[in-house]
Amino acid sequence: MNEAAASATRWQQLRSSSVGDAARLVWRKAVHRTVHMGRFGTPTSASTPPERPCELTIEVWGPDRFDDVLPNNPHLTVDDIEHFRRQQSRVIVITDGDRIPASSWMTNGSVYVHELQRHLEVPRTEHFSCRSYVDPDYAGRSLMSHMIHHYSTLQPDGDETWGLVYDWNVASVRSLERIGWRRSGDYWTSYWFGRKSGGERRYPPKPPTTI
Question: What is the pLDDT of residue 67?
Answer without folding.
Answer: 96
